[in-house]
Amino acid sequence: MEESEDVPKDFIKLKSEKLSVDEVSELVVSPYCGAVSLFIGTTRNNFEGKKVIHLEYEAYTSMAETEIKKICRDVRQKWPSVKHIAVHHRLGAESLEAVMYCINTLKASVPIWKKWIKRRAAGTVCYCILRTCQFYGLSLFERQKFTRKGTINHF
């Protein structure tokens, strides 16, 4: 690929369909650059202390695209080595119920352990492991306490 064929480009898209990380990544790959940096925004499940159950994004598309183009120009001015820029943003409504279901089901059925490592009195380290899951209909709750000496206490 000749230098003239890899002219810096901006790819701006606002759409209601699902976004593709692979698509965005492929747009900005250049044989003249050694890395691709991606930012993937996600939605928190709360806002100002309240649970978020539904999210909607709306835009004045032409104005939004104009402002994104300005940002791309600013980036190129401040960091001239940046080759391609892609800014894709999803519009429309998103329900967080599917995400919450997935998280809650994972916590209830997948055998994953959480480990806390705490410093106690001089020279003593305490490990607490919390294992919770309902796996094949069996409820399991076990908490173990380990000290540096290797003793295990179930409680």
Give a brief description.
This protein has helices at 21-28, 61-78, 97-109, and strands at residues 10-15, 46-47, 50-51, 54-57, 85-90, 92-95, 113-119, 125-135, 138-147, 152-154. It is an alpha+beta fold.
Q: Name the average pLDDT.
A: 75
Instruction: Order the strands across the largest sheet as they lie in space.
Output: 7-8-9-10
Strand content: 35-45%
- How would you classify the helix and strand content by structural class? alpha+beta
Helix content: 25-40%
Q: Can you count the helices? A: 3
Uncertain regions: pLDDT < 50 for 5+ in a row? 131-155
- For the terminal residues, how far apart are their CA atoms? 66 Å
Outline the structure in words:
The chain is of the alpha+beta class and 155 residues long. The chain is built from three helices and ten strands, in the order βαβββαββαββββ. The strands form four sheets. The protein has a four-stranded antiparallel sheet with strand order 7-8-9-10. It has a two-stranded parallel ribbon with strand order 1-5. A hairpin with a 5-residue loop joins strand 7 and strand 8. The C terminus is likely disordered.
Describe the protein's topology.
Elements (H helix, E strand, L loop, with lengths): L9 E6 L5 H8 L17 E2 L2 E2 L2 E4 L3 H18 L6 E6 L1 E4 L1 H13 L3 E7 L5 E11 L2 E10 L4 E3 L1
Parallel strand pairs: 1-5
Antiparallel strand pairs: 2-3, 4-6, 7-8, 8-9, 9-10
